[in-house]
Amino acid sequence: MQCHSKSDDIDYAGETRIVLVGSPNVGKSLLFHNLTGKYATVSNYPGTTVDITKGRIKEFNAILIDTPGMYSLIAITEEERVARKILFGGVDVVVHVVDAKNIERMLPFTLQLIEAGFNTILVLNAMDDAERLGIEIDSKLLSERLGIPVIKTIATQKRGIDELKRAIKSLLQSRKNRKELINLNSNLGDRIKEISKMIEGEYPVSKKMIAFLLLAGDSDTIEMIRGERNYEKIMQIARSERTPYEVFMMVQRSADNLLDGVLIKKERKGDLTDKISDLSTHPLISIPMTLLSLYLLYLFAGVIGAQILVDSIESSYELYINKPLNSILDAYIDNYWIRELIGGEYGIVTLGLRYAIAIIFPIVTTFFIAFSILEDSGYLPRVATLLDTLFKKVGLSGRAVIPLLLGLGCGTMATIVTRTLENRKERLIATLMLAVGIPCSAQLGVMMGIAPDFQSLLIWILIIATVLIATGSVASKIIGGEEPLFFMELPPLRVPNLSNVLFKTLARLEWYFKEVLPIFILISLVIWIGRLTTLFDILIGALSIPSRAIGLPSEAGLIMLYGFFRRDYGAAGLFDLVEKGLFTAEQTVIAMVVLTLFVPCIAMFSVMCRERGVKASVAIFAISIAVAFGVGYLTSIAFHYI
């Protein structure tokens, strides 16, 4: 699998294009893998941070595009807008993947696709879960009514894949006649017909669907037809007594009629999995279940990965790579600065590659494994749903629990994962909170070790938590943009499939090496230049001034700079200073607070610049400095009066 994140034109002139669409958590990604094998590229859609996965189906040499989750042609989130742009850009076949047990809610989107004029195939995925729940679907009858192929699949078992490929090939060779499936026998239907007749231009979807989108109040469609000669008349009709809800219900009623006699539900007794699934959404019991799952995730990624494995791999790296390399450099390279570029304390091999291989790699590996297990089990959407109400207080949705939790392992990776959030406002708030107050696991461990006593540790936790909540709340009011929306299907709980977990983990690790490794090499070069130009010493001197202003020794400037290069470097430096007796108990707590709130490490800052842009990243950087020393100053004053 090839993975990268460069902006990549979605332009395949002369290529056959097949697009996978559907709601989140319906199995599109696994179907994509089953159809394409191991070859795939991941890139940002031009002008956005939304990832698009592309691959090739070798049997008929066609490009397959896996779009972000979407529920309807009426786009709400940035992901849905990107998915719709890809559809409107021209495709040969659209494969609509639905969760078979939720076909009643998902079929209306199928009708929209057909009415829009797309060459559509309906895939009823996860048929095993549907059958387990006593749901039977007459796919042959449904296919006759829709006038399109309807394929049953179980992506986790690769069942139905060959049949799906045959259906795609058949559609590519001969397009089928369209059926009119949405019942327009109503006042609303009359308005759709009237608007359709008035539209004169050529568009990527049918005039009937354009009328449908206009009546639903879709802003992008309104802009698309602005050049129409009858634009004002069209909009007058579209705006008169416009009720988007009625538009959706018209399609839903049509879908319900089509499912009459197709969908059969049988009563069945629930098994243990069903009972656990019910408990996972219970208002009270779900809370301890969620806390336990998050704690287990932290233990696996934060303790086993970030502490045990990191300690073991880093010590081996130091023993078998750094020490021999430095000995060779000392023996054969006379120039000091050339030696320091490669080895020494901050060299490309001794620092950059060591961070990437010995520090971050074990953390992200264990996290990716744990994340894949939660993802494949179907539990992850439940965690996000439970925390949604709480997170909305700070301008986030429940989905933000993932990057914020990951921040306790590695802020760099967590910043990248903020891509999964729905809109720019959420991504900015989550990135700000990660930069300002989420300590990485190594930093967290050191803080717990140097706290003078348990009471001091509680004070530190209370201050950091207060700052995080305040930061999110203020940012949500200042940063412009849409309020967080949260739509997420709740798939059934299941025992994770080992092959799926391994595939997802390996695919993400391959992406990690291609995406993150160059950043760490670049960091080493930046540090080397800083030392060569004496900028390093100047920065230490500059940071010692505010450190003394809040009652800390001047040596605190060094640990702040170390914290910028790597957070646990700063924490380790603080540990040494505390051990040497240079800090009192109160100064230790102040230093713990300031170092935790201080700027993101250089690796995280580099990723922030790429993900959020240089302007936003510099602003977050400045806010972090102000918050760190400001809260540190208030903490010192509080200690003075206690």
Characterise the protein shown here.
It is a single chain. This protein has 29 helices and 9 strands. It is α/β, with parallel strands linked by helices and 642 residues long. Helix 19 (424-437) runs antiparallel to helix 21, helix 20 (441-450) runs parallel beside helix 26 (567-579) and helix 26 runs antiparallel to helix 27 (585-597). The radius of gyration is 28 Å and the shape is elongated. The model is unreliable at 1-11 and 43-47 (pLDDT under 50).
In short:
This protein has 642 residues and is of the alpha/beta class. The chain is built from 29 helices and nine strands.
What is the residue-averaged pLDDT?
80
> How many domain modules?
4
Please mark out the parts with pLDDT under 50 across 5 or more consecutive residues, or reply none: 1-11, 43-47
Which bin fits the share of residues in helices? 55-70%
Beta-strand share of residues: 5-15%
Strand order of the largest sheet: 2-3-4-1-5-6-8
Shape, principal axes of CA atoms: elongated
The total of helices stands at 29
